[in-house]
């Protein structure tokens, strides 16, 4: 009753609210349906009582009593055999429609399609519950969809309902299967809070707190869930949504992982680091989707924009950024701003103590043969006759062991501890992906204590 009151109050007549009334007895279900009608609900939805299997006669009596209690409000039967423990017989639905005119439709959450299809009855407004069946259901005449997944990802679900395609429904189905692999309430509350929805801490609180060991194992499992799809950049359910979902879990639980002995500042730091990780992962995942909107851009303007973004750090470290012969090239501007930000930011971060960073950025457009003559390692990577833009970013920082020149571009790879140099180990992976989006490649050369140089080669049309 309280849930119905709160939802109707929050909707404030801006949304139509269908109140789902479910209880373990017909008498209590009837009271809930009557209450929903009395407080201004726009429709009532009723499921069969769980745990007690009803035969056809009892099913008919149960739903008829609830429909009568809320008449003339539109009344929907919620068919979900795996929750109630039994299926509502289609003959029962037909009899209900004949007896009670306010019985107008169904919400059906049964899968697979064969089980769902049996409820596409003439004269009933049917709403699709399983996201993976939205496209098929709408194509066969369903009135709409009801999706719990939309609480977390409303735009993605709405897009599939408005523009149903098999591919979109499949992605939602995979996303639903993915999010159900972990308890969802903590993550959902965090996502809602990020969307500006106030959610009290006591809403859907767990039946018992997790033990310290359970918390640690919970986070460890979720980190592994994050790493696998990011490393493979696999298809299926959108990777950024999977990252956002597990990221919400991690941030929501960050304060719990260390138990009750952590100070407030350490809790805040843990949550902050986790949020940074998620944002970096989202940035990486979005660079997997190549944006081909290239435009002729001044590299000098990109560098100047990056210097403004990093102005505080540049001033604090008394850094010098020297540029020479920066070309105008066809690039995706926003991606290259991120690329420069990551590379220059790395040079600032990995500078030597008490030595002002000196960063040099140069570029040149020339045939591949010229670069091959200077560096034989480029023989198999450049076409001799084709023109390329070579961009070089070098610094006087701490450098790195040349054995790791390939490894540093991999996701989650760090050569130094987070206490020495903060970061998530994703920045250079983003840089590499951006360069590849421009049909180019990047190399790194360095020696410990001797600075580092990053060389980018992209075609120059």
Could you describe the 3D structure shown?
This protein is of the alpha/beta class and 461 residues long. 46% of the residues lie in helices and 15% in strands. The chain has 18 helices and 13 strands. A 6-stranded parallel beta sheet has the order 1-2-3-4-5-6. It has a 5-stranded mixed beta sheet with strand order 8-10-11-13-12. Helix 3 packs parallel to helix 5 and helix 11 packs antiparallel against helix 12. The longest helix has 24 residues. 36% of the residues are buried. About 4% of the residues have low confidence.
Relevant terms:
single chain, about 450 residues, alpha/beta, six-stranded parallel beta sheet, five-stranded mixed beta sheet, 18 helices, 13 strands, about 45% helix
In short:
This protein is an alpha/beta fold and 461 residues long. The chain contains 18 helices and 13 strands. It has a six-stranded parallel β-sheet. A five-stranded mixed β-sheet has the order 8-10-11-13-12.
């Amino acid at each position: 009753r309280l849930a119905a009151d709160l939802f109707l109050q929050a909707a404030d007549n801006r949304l139509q609210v269908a109140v789902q009334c479910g209880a373990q007895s017909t008498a209590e279900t009837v009271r809930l349906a009557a209450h929903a009608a009395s407080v201004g609900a726009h429709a009532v939805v009723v499921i069969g009582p769980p745990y007690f299997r009803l035969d056809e006669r009892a099913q008919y009596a149960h739903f008829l009593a609830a429909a009568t209690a809320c008449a003339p409000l539109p009344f929907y039967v919620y068919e979900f055999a795996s929750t109630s423990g039994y299926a509502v017989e289609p003959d029962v639905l037909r009899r209900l429609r004949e007896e009670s005119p306010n019985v107008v439709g169904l919400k059906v959450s049964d899968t697979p399609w064969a089980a769902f299809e049996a409820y596409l009855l003439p004269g009933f407004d049917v709403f699709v519950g399983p996201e993976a069946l939205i496209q098929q259901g709408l194509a066969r005449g369903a009135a709409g969809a009801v999706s719990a997944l939309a609480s977390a990802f409303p735009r993605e679900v709405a897009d599939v309902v408005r523009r149903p395609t098999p591919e979109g429904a499949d992605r939602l189905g995979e996303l639903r299967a993915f999010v159900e692999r972990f308890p969802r309430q903590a993550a959902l509350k965090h996502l809602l809070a990020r969307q500006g929805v106030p959610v009290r801490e006591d809403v859907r609180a767990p039946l018992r707190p997790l033990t310290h060991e359970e918390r640690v194992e919970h986070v460890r499992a979720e980190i592994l869930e994050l790493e696998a799809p990011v490393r493979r950049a696999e298809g299926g359910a959108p990777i950024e949504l999977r990252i956002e979902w597990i990221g919400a879990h991690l941030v929501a639980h960050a304060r719990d992982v260390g138990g009750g002995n952590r100070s407030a500042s350490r809790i805040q730091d843990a949550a902050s680091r986790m949020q940074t990780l998620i944002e970096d992962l989202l940035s990486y995942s979005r660079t997997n989707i190549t944006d081909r909107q290239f435009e002729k851009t001044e590299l000098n303007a990109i560098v100047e924009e990056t210097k403004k973004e990093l102005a505080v750090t540049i001033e604090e470290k008394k850094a010098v950024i020297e540029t020479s012969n920066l070309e105008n090239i066809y690039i995706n501007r926003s991606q290259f701003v991120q690329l420069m930000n990551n590379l220059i930011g790395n040079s600032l971060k990995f500078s030597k103590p008490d030595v002002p960073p000196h960063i040099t950025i140069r570029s040149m457009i020339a045939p591949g043969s010229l670069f091959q003559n200077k560096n034989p390692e480029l023989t198999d990577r450049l076409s001799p006759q084709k023109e390329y833009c070579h961009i070089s970013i070098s610094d006087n920082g701490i450098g790195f062991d040349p054995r790791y020149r390939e490894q540093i571009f991999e996701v989650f790879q760090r050569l130094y501890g987070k206490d020495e140099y903060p970061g998530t180990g994703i920045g250079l992976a983003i840089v590499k992906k951006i360069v590849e989006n421009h049909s180019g490649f990047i190399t790194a050369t360095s020696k410990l204590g001797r600075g580092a140089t990053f060389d980018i080669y992209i075609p120059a049309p």
